[in-house]
Amino acid sequence: MIIANKNSNIHYTESGAGSAIVLLHGFLETSMMWKNFIPELSKNNRVVCIDLLGHGQTDCIGYIHTMEAMADAVLAVLKHLKVKTAKFIGHSMGGYVALALAEKQPQLFSGLFLMNSTFNADAEDRKLMRTRAIKMTHTNYENLVRMSFANLFAPESKIKFKHDYEKALQVALGTSVQGYIAAQEGMKLRPNRFKVFIGLNGKKLILTGRKDALVNTEGIKLQIKGTSVIHEELSEGHMSHIENKTELTYIIKHFIEK
Known about the structure:
The protein is α/β, with parallel strands linked by helices. It has one domain: Rossmann fold, CATH 3.40.50. Helix content is about 45%, strand content about 20%. It is built from 12 helices and 8 strands. Strands 1-2-4-3-5-6-7-8 form an 8-stranded mixed beta sheet, with helices on both faces. Helix 4 packs antiparallel against helix 8. InterPro entries: AB_hydrolase_1, AB_hydrolase_sf. This is Alpha/beta hydrolase.
C-alpha cells in the first residue's frame, strides 16, 4: 500500500489485528526483510512494515535523508493507520529512525527493540568511512554495494546462508544511488540518543551480534549497566534475521508479549 507525504510516495504493508508492532528495516534493505517473521507475529498482533525513504518502493526526497525525515515518513503512515501506540523493532538504521521518532513522539512507544543497532552517534572514523563510500558511488556503485553488504555478515555466514545472502544482496543492489547517498549522509548527522532510549516507557531491548563489526557490544553493555534496558547477544554478525533467525524469532516473540 502507498500513501503520499511531502512529495514522496511511502510504501507500507499491514497484517493481522491486535496490538500494533512496527517493523523498520536497515540500510540497503526493504520491508521485505521481515517477510518470514510476519506470519507468526501477525497471529495476535497488527504488524506494520514500512519502506524507509529511498529504499524499496518509497521515494527519495533529496540527497540527505536525516533520521528525523525518515521518522516523519513513518509517523505519516502511523497517523494514516490511526496507530496510537506500538512496539517498535528497528534493524540497524531502522533503530536510528525509531529513536528519532521516539524523541519526537515518545507517547507512541510501548516498547523499543534496537536490533543490531545503537543509540550512539557515529564516531569520527565511521563518518569518514561514510564520506569515502559516498564518493565511491560515482565510480563503481555496484562493487561499492557488494562490499558494503558483505561487511554486514560474519565471514562464514556468507557461505552457510548463501541462498539468503544472495537474495538480500539483490535487494541491496536495487537501492538507488540517490537512496544510498541520502541514507549515508543522514546517518552521519544523527546525534547520540542514549537518554531518549533509556527515558522511554515500556520494554527496552538491544540486541547485538558477537561477530558484528559495526556495533560496539562491550561499549553498549557498559552504557546500559544499571538501567532498565535488556541486552541480548547472538552468536553471529549484523544480520540476525538471516544468521540467527530461530533465536531472533524467540526474542521478538518474547519482546512483544504483553
